[in-house]
Design goal:
The chain has 262 residues and is mainly alpha-helical. Helix content is 52%, strand content 12%. The protein contains 11 helices and 7 strands. The strands form 3 sheets. The chain has a 3-stranded antiparallel sheet with strand order 3-5-4. α5 crosses α8 (161-172) and α5 (94-111) crosses α11. The longest helix has 24 residues, at 129-152.
Length: 262
């Protein structure tokens, strides 16, 4: 390997850091992806370049391109405070952070509710602001019922007090309220979900397809790779086990399994 190879490997990593850049739209990017997949020495070099930058290569494919994740303490890691600034979160208290974590967890679960969906590279999920809000509210209702039952049995759920505060705070907030100019108020739950989905779209994980249901988005191959990593998280599995997410139809249009009348 020479300096030209190192430069090519670094260029592949740089492409991966551009969320909306895809190999199908760039001949040079496509060639680098092909080389990564066919040349083991180049693959190892690109992985090393990424590691030196505090990045982990999750996958490289013609559909998603180079999908990267920041390691702990990486300069490229998106901290909650940075996310708060980008998403215009007014309050950055711990409860607020957990609320947004619930929203992102529900979005991933709605986009890929079955293991087969994550394994199928051609699968495209759809999520909407209303769907995500409904799923989080139903999850909060179930968790609240469990907490009440545990308290009646003198066995309070004290393992995660921040999570308990978060689900109760979410349930207390209004789902929607319009501002004077007709936009969703930022302190409503759907306003919060809307900002989260727009953030994911800016990162190349979702693409908005319509303004229906508060904004409807389709998933991308890039997001599928990220959710595969998230699926190993126990919180993701626990949310699916609550039974509040169901598949709507074979086209990948998903809907929560509860009435969407909030």
């Amino acid at each position: 390997m020479n300096t030209a190879d190192v430069e090519a490997a670094a260029r592949l990593v740089s492409y991966g850091m551009r969320p909306k850049q895809l190999p199908g739209r760039d001949v040079v990017y496509a060639d680098l992806v092909r080389r990564y997949r066919e040349d083991s020495a180049f693959k190892q070099l690109a992985n090393s370049v990424a590691a030196g930058l505090g990045l982990l290569v999750l996958d490289v494919s013609t559909q998603a391109g180079a999908v990267l994740a920041a390691t702990d303490e990486s300069v490229f890691e998106i901290k909650m405070d940075s996310y708060a600034r980008q998403s215009k979160i007014r309050e950055r208290r711990d409860t607020e952070k957990v609320l947004h974590g619930l929203v992102h967890l529900a979005t991933a679960a709605l986009g890929y509710p079955r293991p087969d969906d994550l394994a199928n590279d051609t699968y495209i999920g759809r999520v909407s602001v209303e769907q995500v809000d409904s799923v989080v509210r139903e999850a909060c209702r179930i968790l609240d019922e469990r907490a009440a039952k545990a308290e009646r049995n003198n066995d309070p759920l004290s393992d995660a007090p921040e999570l308990e505060q978060a689900w109760r705070a979410y349930a207390r907030r209004p789902a929607a309220a319009a501002t004077k100019d007709g936009r969703l108020a930022s302190d409503t739950t759907r306003g919060m979900v809307s900002r989260a989905l727009r953030f994911l779209a800016d990162q190349g994980f979702l693409v908005q397809v319509s303004g229906e249901q508060g904004g409807t988005y389709r998933t991308t191959p890039r997001y599928q790779v990220q959710v595969r990593e998230l699926a190993a998280d126990s919180a993701f599995e626990e949310l699916l086990e609550l039974g509040v997410v169901a598949v709507g139809d074979s086209a990948g249009t998903l809907r929560p399994s509860i009435s969407d009348t909030l």
